[in-house]
Amino acid sequence: MSAALLPKPQMRRLLARRMKFHLLGAFLVSMTSAALYKFGVAEPRKRAYAEFYKKYDPMKDFETMKAAGVFECAPPK
Amino acid sequence: MLASRVFSLVGRRSISTSLCLRAHGHAGVVKAEDYTLPAYVDRRDVPLPEVAFVRDLSAQQQALKEKEKASWSALSVDEKVELYRIKFNETYAEMNKGTNEWKTILGGVFFFLGFTGIILIWQKHFMYGPIPHTFSEDWLSAQTKRMLDMRVNPVEGISAQWDFDKNEWKK
């Protein structure tokens, strides 16, 4: 063959290389998605609930709802 | 070998006449059908198929095969390519080449989605009756007001979007 030879391709450890790539990738992807969910969804939700119940007065809330007439057994009078 | 065993067990007379007809005097051996012989296949995981691609060589190709038996450095590049093409149908590159089939498939999918859409529009216009009265503007406003009065989902939901002091939606 007078044309230039192609470089010899990788012959060994093909599965090992693929496995390393995919194990690392799977670990990173799952950890990232878990972190994103925790800090994007779970933590804000916990904060929202904490904030809401800090200044929540159930009796006042009840009186407001009663006045609006939504209770069947506790009419506004 | 198995056929000769059958002969000895069963006896020549009970072999069916069609077999004898096909034998044509070839010592009682039936011509093998194509599908029973090893086949050529272009597959990524089968690098060396059981048979060469070209089964019946022309005179020119046979001469080339003879030349192949001598030193290979005497072969030109074209002859080497010809020998390759005798043995294989497609190169790996040709075998793995993508097609434009996905465009056809996507086009077909969109076409049928559109057709379904036309059917649905026709149905809404010509077939279905009026929607329930509970979807009117007045009813929906009254419904939303009642939900807010009841404090539905006050933490993160609808009541959290309403400003109860200013009596309007939060910005």
Kindly describe this structure.
The complex is a heterodimer of chains A (77) and B (171). In chain A, 68% of the residues lie in helices and 0% in strands. With 77 residues, chain A is mostly helical. Chain B has 171 residues and is mostly helical. Helices cover 47% and strands 2% of the residues of chain B. Chain B has seven helices and two strands. Chain B has a two-stranded antiparallel ribbon with strand order 1-2. In chain B, strand 1 (162-163) and strand 2 form a beta hairpin. The longest helix of chain B has 26 residues, at 101-126. Chain B starts with a helix and ends with a strand. The interface between A and B is small, with 12 and 10 residues.
The oligomeric state of the chains shown is heterodimer
Structural class from helices and strands of chain B? mainly alpha
Overall mean pLDDT of chain A stands at 94
**Poorly predicted sequence stretches spanning 5 or more consecutive residues of chain B:** none
Strand content of chain A: under 5%
Helix content of chain B: 40-55%
CATH class of the domain at 24-97 in chain B: Mainly Alpha
- Which band does the percent of strand residues of chain B land in? under 5%
Shape of chain A: rod-shaped
* CATH architecture classification name of the domain at 24-97 in chain B: Orthogonal Bundle
Distance between the termini of chain B: 91 Å
Do you know the CATH topology of the domain at 24-97 in chain B? Answer: Cytochrome C Oxidase, Chain D
Report the order of strands and helices of chain A.
HH
Gap from first CA to last CA of chain A:
103 Å
Number of E-type strands of chain B: 2
- Uncertain residue ranges of chain A: none
Overall spatial form of chain B? elongated
